[in-house]
Every structure is written in C-alpha cells, then in structure tokens.
Design goal:
transmembrane helix; 15 helices; flat; 0% strand; single chain; mainly alpha
Length: 305
C-alpha cells in the first residue's frame, strides 16, 4: 500500500497522531477500571507489579484502538465527529496503524504474562481479539446489537485487573463486568439519538438507524432498569459496603430518571431544544460509571482504615 504521506503536500504525522490512534479517552477508562479491579481484589500485589500490570493493560487497550481505527478508516472518513482522526485525515497510513496495533498487542500480552500471570495475559489477548475482530470487523457493520454484544470488550478490563491480582475470576469481577456491560448500550444510544445522521451516512446499523428513535428511547429506559440491580448487587459483595451502596442507589435513581425522561420525549420536542435532555443524560452516563468505580475505591479505603 502506498504511504499517503509520500504525496507532495500531504500532512506529516506527529507524535500526537500516533497517540490518537490509541484512543486515549477510551484508554483512560480502561486504565481506571482495570486499576480499580486490581486494587479492590482480595490479594496483596507489589506496587511495581500493579503498576506494570495496569500499564500493559493500557497498551493492550491502545492496540485495540489502533486496530479499530485501521479497519474503520472508511467509516471515520464519513462521520463528522471522526473525520479528523489520523488515518482519514491522511496524517497516518493505514498499514502503519495496523502494524502499531499488532506490535502493541503482542508486546502487551507477553509483558502482562511476565509481570502478573498468564491467565490475565490470555484474558487480555481475548479482549483485544474481541474488540478488533468480533466487534469492529463483524458486529459493528452487521447488527444493531453491535453496541450490546461488542460492549463486552469495554467491560473486561476490571476483570483483567482482578485476574492480575488473584489469577482468576469471581462474582465481584463478574459484577464489575456487568456494571459496564449493561451501562454501555444506554450510554451510546443516548449519543446516537443526537448523532443519528453520522451513523446513517456511514451505513452503520446503529439502533437509531435500523429501528428509529422511538424504539431507541424504549431500549435506553429498559437498559437503565436492567443495569440498576447489578450495580447495587455489587455493593452487597465483600468489595462493597455502605459508601458504595449509597452512591450506587443515588446514581441509579438519577440514571433511571434520565432514561424515563428520554422515553417520554417526542422527536419534535427533542428537535425544538436541540436534544438537550439526551445530551444531559449522555453526560450523566459518563459520570455514572466513573463515580461507581470511585465509590469502590473509597469503600475499599474506608474498609482498610
């Protein structure tokens, strides 16, 4: 494949463009949830091993992002919010992104195995495969359930962190997985409600495109109801407690209320105020997940104290 940067006048790649390939915003969520999973696990982990484990999980997440951007370059070139990404903007050639993703994937898995254990390393390898192949190559362009099933990839990091500490899986790590897994659809569908034209033009079968906005609103509300019991249940396990439970109950009440507001909205009302409610619930969803994992950390510190 010809290097796009070889053409006269083409923009040259900068270091920040290669960082952008790793999807740093997504990586920050991977790092944080993996760290929490490792930190609250019932095992003593040397600080250096913990640091290396989270670092290599982050690099694995970055590898997934690079592979995703390589394969989705055609979609990114159409969607307004992704047109300035390094590949569609012509700053990085697709083959370079593919090579970076493959190298980082192999390096991160091998180093995590050496730093922590090979069960966690195998789990990381499966997660990279799931995001890059199952979600990006298969589900994303094939089914409106892409976000539902593909959301598992983003839900694995706390389980990997837990596995780094314990070498296995437990109810607590499964509930952390469920928290992210059932949060993902209402989070992304709220975004899709006010970004539908992007997905439509890129021919991505998002629920808003295949089933319409009214059906999407019903699905958002339904998933907030399904999510709440799993989120609260985590507070009843050994990693939970009163601090986490109080935070979870409040956050789930707010998220369900937001889903109810979205459900009751008509499209005319949404257009009239520029999808203000949908945008507010989308922002709430970001805080929802972050604060749940912060509450786990605080609960752990309170319990230790």
């Amino acid at each position: 494949m010809t290097d796009i940067n070889a053409y006269e006048g083409a923009p040259e790649a900068e270091f920040r463009d290669f960082v952008a390939l790793l999807k740093p915003r997504v990586m920050s969520l991977v790092v944080f949830t993996a760290f929490v999973g490792l930190w609250v696990a019932p095992a003593d982990v040397h600080p250096f091993i913990a640091f290396c484990s989270v670092l290599f999980i982050a690099l694995g997440g970055g590898a997934s992002g690079a592979l995703n951007m390589w394969y989705d370059a055609d979609i990114d070139a159409v969607m307004r919010r992704t047109q300035n990404r390094p590949i569609p903007a012509g700053r990085i050639e697709g083959g370079s992104a593919l090579a970076l993703g493959v190298i980082l994937a192999g390096f991160s898995v091998m180093m995590l195995g050496l730093a922590a254990n090979w069960f966690a390393a195998g789990f990381l390898a499966f997660t990279i495969f799931f995001y890059a192949v199952v979600y990006t190559i298969w589900l994303k362009r094939w089914t409106p359930q892409n976000i539902v099933i593909g959301g598992a990839a983003g839900a694995f990091p706390p389980m990997i962190g837990w596995a780094c500490a314990t070498g296995g899986i437990s109810l607590e790590s499964l509930l952390m997985f469920a928290l992210i897994f059932f949060w993902t659809p209402p989070h992304f569908w709220a975004l899709a409600l006010f970004m539908k034209s992007d997905y439509h033009e890129a021919k991505v079968p998002m629920l808003t495109v295949t089933h319409g906005r009214p059906a999407t609103r019903r699905h958002i509300f339904a998933y907030t109801l399904v999510l709440a019991p799993f989120a609260v249940w985590l507070g009843l396990t050994p990693v939970g407690g009163p601090v986490y439970l109080a935070a979870s109950i409040v956050l789930n009440a707010l998220f369900i209320h937001g889903g109810w507001q979205i459900l009751r909205r008509t499209e005319d009302a949404a257009i009239a105020d520029g999808y203000a409610v949908e945008k507010r619930v989308f922002k709430l969803s970001l805080n929802y997940l972050f604060l749940h994992f912060v509450a786990l950390l605080v609960q752990n510190w309170v319990g230790a104290w």
